[in-house]
Amino acid sequence: RSRVAVLISGRGSNMASLLEAAARPDYPAEIALVVSNRPDAGGLKRAAQAGVPTAVVDHKGKGSRQVFEEELDARLREAGIEIVCLAGFMRLLTPWFVNRWNDRLINIHPALLPSFKGLDTHARALAEGCRIHGATVHFVRAEMDAGPIIVQGAIPVLDGDDEAALAARVLAVEHRIYPQALALVASGRVRVDGMRVFLDGEVSEATAEA
Ligand code: GAR
């Protein structure tokens, strides 16, 4: 089983969905470490309750991004981590870190990329009148919210939706597709070619179906 670290900044509901999936005996990854850049992240308690080792690498008082990322990188390597999952990790990572973990660093974004990179994705999808919205799991590249797409999940936007209602339905999608995407990567069934992700030589069925 691949050793995975989950990086969080907040409540950690996506982290919890990964922990739940990894508790199944046939799941190809184990969550070996949860790291937060904020000491008060709610997800830290949840991880500890599940018996997963946790660490805080506080970005405050570090002087520079590079110092923060070197410490983070050292923690991950000490723990023998092979794959890193960003799950509501709200720090931009520099090209140095992203390149070190190339094709082993994945992120979940609450929109159908390449639409709505950045923040406030649900409000923006509503403001643009989108009929379809969703979430994306992708490999991280130096450019924010860009990188080869592993799995996407879509839902219709309903007439009665406000930001909170839409966010809740997208979150349910996130909790479904992140474990699915991590399983594909951890089982070594994913091949990256430019911006495209292939599964066992074919376009990922999960990408097409989710
Ligand atoms: C999730 O909706 C995730 O997609 C989003 O933050 C939330 C974290 O929730 N990530 C981003 O916006 C990244 N820019 P969680 O802590 O409950 O998983």
TrEMBL record:
One of its GO terms (molecular function) is phosphoribosylglycinamide formyltransferase activity. Keywords: Purine biosynthesis, Transferase. Its EC number is 2.1.2.2. This is Phosphoribosylglycinamide formyltransferase. The lineage of its organism: Bacteria, Pseudomonadati, Pseudomonadota, Alphaproteobacteria, Hyphomicrobiales. Pathway: Purine metabolism; IMP biosynthesis via de novo pathway; N(2)-formyl-N(1)-(5-phospho-D-ribosyl)glycinamide from N(1)-(5-phospho-D-ribosyl)glycinamide (10-formyl THF route): step 1/1. It comes from Stappia albiluteola. N(1)-(5-phospho-beta-D-ribosyl)glycinamide binds at residues 12-14. SUPFAM superfamilies: Formyltransferase. Belongs to the GART family. The active site is at residue 109. The gene is purN. It catalyses: N(1)-(5-phospho-beta-D-ribosyl)glycinamide + (6R)-10-formyltetrahydrofolate = N(2)-formyl-N(1)-(5-phospho-beta-D-ribosyl)glycinamide + (6S)-5,6,7,8-tetrahydrofolate + H(+). Catalyzes the transfer of a formyl group from 10-formyltetrahydrofolate to 5-phospho-ribosyl-glycinamide (GAR), producing 5-phospho-ribosyl-N-formylglycinamide (FGAR) and tetrahydrofolate.
